[in-house]
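Lecture 7 notes. Example A: sequence first, then its structure tokens.
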Amino acid sequence: MSLYALLEKVGRLGLFCQSRAKIKLVLKGSFLIIPHNRHRTPESICPPDMTGVKSSGSGWIGLLRSVWWNVRACGRYRNVVGRLDLVLLILFQFLLTIDYSFGKTWAGTCSKAGRIGCDGRLGKHVEEVDKPASLSGVEHAVVVPVLVRTNDSLTQFERAVRSVHRILKDDEILIVVDDGSPTQFQKAIQASCSWPKIVLLRHCPNVGPASSRNTAMDWCRSNRSEIQTVCFLDADCVVPDANWSAAHRAQQKEVPGIVCGRTISLNPETWVSLYHDVFGTLNGRMFEDENNLLYGATCNMSIRFDALPDGFRFDPQFRTPAFEDVEFCVRARKTGLTKNITFLSGAVIKHDYSTDALGFIEQFWRYGQGHHRMLEAHPEYDAWFAASSPMLNFSI
């Protein structure tokens, strides 16, 4: 039995939950999550440079910067975020900065053989499983790439699809890209997509989220459709607002290009979710003097085809969900879209963050690896990161 499987079994045995009003102890994957008690909801919390290691080049300098911000925040936000919460955030930042640094170092030591450039193509077979009888009048698409490997991830996907189905307008469709899910889950995925105005594409084999989004974009371009804008959503997210896609479309009409919305946690009662909300893990970074983003996250992003260079795509070398969206935005900026990468605070989605220890550590390990690949393609990225600020337009 693997260590992960053993920890999962221990976690299930240790599961203990009480009502939300009381202290709740949840042991999952050997990680103790003690939900915090939020008494107030400020309009914004000023987070630090979440991964100071990115701009400083040193894990320890980045760590000290993060710890110093938390110490200052103890005084500034003592009436908003509990001191116990901040102690836990300091601990998380300490561990995750080290984790991030090791992931970056590990990626640097791996062989670069077989590296694929952004103009390359991964060997993949794309099957069109289902599509609407007619695309007449369809001008907008919502794209959800998915890789289902467990029953939990299937539940997340089904929830995401239902949330999109609820808000789709007459001129919108949903495009699901099944990125090589195991056979035992393919029928369940297809059953979740068995309603009109949905396109189901399937990869074989798994090629990663960047290539999955490329598949959806290529499908839109190659089917003589009238689709002008595409919204990207992750399979572990939920759209809570019926005006989410409409907000993206309105912003694209005003400033065509890349629009990134606001991401908050689906389960805000845990300290892990508090970490993501305070540090703005998926809310991008802003150049304040230019009033536009350095990057945003593809869990809540839209693009307009006619505002991007012909055939502009995600870099398929990013095989895991880490930095493929950062690289996409930075490359777009380098092509001249310096004023067209905007933040839209009114387009809100809720993200179901992993709250077990292994998932939390794996997430930032992937970020470290993605950062290394990012610097290979764009050496100037760290300087741009240092010149930008984390988004403040979110609340916890």
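Example B, a different protein, same format:
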Amino acid sequence: MSGRRRTTQSSAPRCTQSFGDSSIESPTPTNDDRQPLSQTDNRTPVVERRRRLSGAAPLHNLRKPKTIHDRVYGAVTLPGVLVAAMDTSEFQRLDKIRQLGGSSFVFPSATHTRKEHSVGTAHLALLVVRHLRNTQPELAIDDSDELCVGLAALLHDVGHGPYSHMWEPFVRRCTGDQNYSHEGMGARLVRRICTQIKLEEYIPGVKVEFICACIEGLADDADWPFSHLSEDKRFLCDIVSNKRSGLDVDKWDYLNRDSVSTLGESSSGGFDVTRLVSAIRVVKGPQRCVGEVAFEEKVALDLNRIFKLRSEMHQMVYQHRVAIVAEAMITDAFLAAHDSAFRITATGEDGTCREFTLGEAASDCGAFTPVWKSTS
């Protein structure tokens, strides 16, 4: 044997990861990199691992995609950035807020939550974006667009308070702020969540204002507010909240979910969401030279069924006499608590821990999150 010693390079060893037709040369993952992010995370898919090893973001800072079983759609897989948003306390509080508020006093099975609805809406939004991406490549939809729309769908109801829509009239009565809405509070919470999860690490160059615009929707006469993004992407703001026709994934999910939970699957008169998704196209609108979401003529009856179901749900569920009476009684209890010595101790958005009345907590992002603990 030769007495010559074998030398090694001082730099870290490198390995080549192959993905389809291409490969990525990257540092060998350390033991710290191989550690799972949490006990409930799924194994990292190949595509996500490729993105992480390419240096897009530190491996240990990113959440992995997760598969959730939904009562309406079955297995639903959400991207890592949506999982990160779900792990925040601002979103998790939706698990304690019932979708139909006082209707659960009339329909015992109407116990589904805003969290369920948000996950279902995100699933449908991702289906729509991926369908358009596959069928109309000329739209130039990229990963950033897909994740922004999915995140908007997941967080579109994050501003709801206890008992859902009943909360807003209560806040207006006790604070005198007639402009208060769950959309306004939701926009503030979305910015707070995006800061907490370090959104830039998942979607480089993203603008939180674009996610908020996807949540609120854009009317036809509204100007395009984003200089960093071409107005050709205006149709993305129609997916979660369609100001033109009202045919959006938010409505699809809550009508299907609410009708099944209250009237039962056999008598709810639901519609086939998969058929609607397959019929979506982006076409040039008559008023602007930019695309807008439209549907093939073959699903005209399905679309008509949506509006018919919405009318029936308002008559039989949403405007049910007993549900309205129950919500009025709960509102009176909240008003009495607001005027009494009842206080919520929480850390406000300014970082100080103090006591809040119910009305004060409704307008403070920090105190708003734990409100459900005191009102459930």
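Note on Example B: The radius of gyration is 24 Å. Confidence is low (pLDDT under 50) at residues 5-44, 56-60.
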